[in-house]
Design a protein that fits this description.
The protein has 374 residues and is α/β, with parallel strands linked by helices. The chain contains 14 helices and twelve strands. A hairpin with a 5-residue loop joins strand 10 and strand 11. Helix 5 packs parallel to helix 9, helix 12 packs parallel to helix 13 and helix 13 packs across helix 14. It is globular. The structure holds D-mannose and manganese (II) ion.
């Protein structure tokens, strides 16, 4: 297993590579070119510059005698253009054009030594929460999902809120400059079924997987978050059955999962440990984090330790350790601690401290269970 840490890039993240360097056990920086929109081709020079930044050391660090470096083998994410999910031209791009650009990006990432590319196949939105700074009993804050708020919300009302900045809520991928494209997308999804989505997904895989095999880049789909339909849009990577159906769309081992156990577990019926054991040989990358369910249907994100919430993070690490899992793992969203709630606000969920603590918990469990294996 290789432990990773998601990093948003120089000047785009409150966390620096030098901070991450001091977290024991992190080998891989999980990165992306965050200024690229879905459907855009990534330039080789930009890829190579980012990989060099991650795998190298600054002059200042070298002068201090620092030697520890990272690999840049995991990209999260190369986003899939909506035309691919819809199977038709939308936002001025045809799906074949978007697929051709995706293939070019995969080739270039493969040349740069990238081994795994994470993506999701959710219509319109990435993860959805109703409060990004929800207070927890210990004085920290975390991402929170309030069911009653989402049940009352329509996509139009959510976008209107974001446009007017009513709640200070900016969802990932919905920075103000993109809000205008929302109305076209919302209309495009009317009448699109789950079966349509699976068919469009298969078309995408058949086109891109040969390139993934040639360049030895594994694709790992991230489960829907939360793992059920929202606003009537069809989500197809939600349940265990959905994940199995997605994997069956293409037999190549280069088509697999970024199994995010926090997202998957947001449906209280889901069994995270069972999912790890069931899909082990197709898990290329895994996000291990914890959430806590409430009877209301709400959930909050909590610290990574199993006893803090509803997800059996220890059982998950036991399953990985028993299989001697060879893929990548990272902690996922953390709480915001200490100065992260005042002077040093990170991207919601992506502060330094709670993810560093989470890594130590996950590695502790991994080491103990590996030790038991002899
Ligand atoms: C939430 C995060 C996601 C993830 C994307 C992958 O659990 O891990 O935002 O990065 O869905 O495309
Ligand atoms: Mn995740």
């Amino acid at each position: 297993m290789k432990m990773g840490f998601r990093w948003y890039g120089e000047g785009n993240d409150t966390v620096t590579l030098d901070h991450v360097r001091q977290i024991p056990g992190v080998e891989t920086i999980v990165w992306s070119l965050h200024h690229k929109q879905a459907g855009e081709v990534w330039e080789q020079a930009e890829i190579d510059a980012e990989v060099a930044r991650i795998t190298g050391l600054s002059a200042a660090a070298r002068a201090q005698g620092v030697t520890r470096t990272f690999d840049a083998e995991v990209v999260e994410s190369v986003n899939v253009h909506e035309s691919i999910k819809l199977g038709r031209t939308v936002l001025g791009m045809s799906r074949d054009e978007a697929i051709a650009n995706y293939i070019t990006t995969i080739e270039r990432l493969g040349r740069a030594g990238v081994k795994v590319v994470c993506y999701n196949f959710m219509p319109v939105f990435d993860w959805l929460r109703t409060d990004l700074w929800h207070p927890l009993p210990d004085g920290s804050t975390a991402l929170y999902y309030e069911k009653a708020v989402v049940d009352k919300m329509s996509p139009e009302s959510l976008i209107a809120d974001m446009e007017a900045n009513t709640h200070g809520l900016t969802l990932p991928g919905w920075e103000p400059e993109r809000l205008a494209s929302f109305h076209e997308l919302n209309a495009a999804y009317v009448g699109v079924t789950h079966d349509d989505m699976y068919a469009n997904y298969q078309y995408f895989l058949e086109a891109v997987i040969p390139t993934c095999e040639e360049y030895d880049v594994k694709l790992g789909v991230h489960p829907d978050d939360p793992p059920f339909d929202v606003f009537g849009w069809p989500r197809v990577v939600s349940s265990k059955e959905g994940l199995a159906r997605v994997l069956d769309l293409h037999p190549s081992p280069h088509h697999g999962l970024t199994l995010c156990l926090g997202s998957f577990s947001a449906n209280p019926e889901h069994d995270a440990v069972d999912a790890v054991r069931t899909f082990m040989d197709r898990i290329h990358f895994s996000h291990v984090r914890n959430i806590k369910h409430f009877a209301s249907g709400d959930f909050t994100e909590v610290a990574h330790r199993a006893s803090e919430g509803s997800v059996d993070t220890t059982g998950i690490m036991k399953a990985y350790a028993e299989a001697n899992y060879q893929g990548y793992i990272r902690p996922d969203h953390g709480r915001h601690l200490w100065d992260e709630n005042t002077t040093n606000k990170p991207r919601p969920g992506y502060g330094l401290y709670d993810r560093a603590l989470g890594i130590q918990y996950l590695l502790g469990a991994w080491d103990a269970f590996r030790y038991q294996q002899g």
